[in-house]
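Example 3.2
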Amino acid sequence: MSDKKNGLTYADAGVDIDAGNALVDRIKPAAAATNRSGVMAGLGGFGALFDLKAAGFSDPILVGATDGVGTKLRIAIDTGHLDTIGIDLVAMCVNDLVCQGAEPLFFLDYFATGKLEMEDAATIIEGIAEGCKRSGCALIGGETAEMPGMYGAGDFDLAGFSVGAMERGAGLPAEVSEGDVLLGLASDGVHSNGYSLVRRVVEHSGLSWDAASPFGEGTLGQALLTPTRLYVKQSLAAIRSGGVRALAHITGGGLTENIPRVLPDGLGISIDLDAWDLPPVFKWLASEGGIAEPEMLKTFNSGIGMVLVVAKDEAERLTSLLTEAGETVAQLGHVTKEAGVAYRGNLL
């Protein structure tokens, strides 16, 4: 091999392999804290191993989900508050899995940035680990990509991938029928959808991210970074107790578009908008942005982050079960024989 002076290195091109290796070592304890039955091998290998039999399944069907957190990332980047955005990433994936009746088993993340900043990256991934821990899901792998020239200073992107399982024949939705009751579980705020509109409203208001929140405690940026609520453990408990026929994670499309996704052809829903109180953040967005009620219901979760479709004679029992699990539950309405979504009452 020739010995040329002043030869370029990968580090000269902006990629620090040593920093990436150091990050893996830094996050290993956080990943280890998410360990659950079935995990065979985690971080460090070319792949991660998971034993479905050891996780307690006899005839499993695998269910996969992938998602991101959208332009909520922009607020996290601009404010420097990075500790909860990883929880959002996990929630957007595992909340979808449980809607299929699946138990989330493991999670992998993709973190891409122009220049790897150790503390920021570790904070983000430790947030991912926290989301996994809260949902009983193991963080067993991921990818950290340092890509100079692709991202501006301080910018990054996130994607998440989760795999769950259920026993054959236990998938949802199942047997949804006219008269079934809609139970809405309260959201913890805007969650992770509609942030392009949120950012436009904030721009219109003239407020900065560090201004006092006009609808809650702390700064505006901190309030809007409240993480997506995780509904996994409480939803699985409800499913396993019987009477749950479908679940709908209320993300982009709001109540208007997400609930019909779990209905058989020909059926619809009737929703009473007076069944719950619209949280202050949504009242502020609607007022400041002049957003009409139909747009609110189609863009945001409007205070309801998950909807369970349950048998009518099981509604009260499941309401009690979910309430005891820490959820705020509202009986939103019911399934109808007329296709479409019918609203009554007033949201605003």
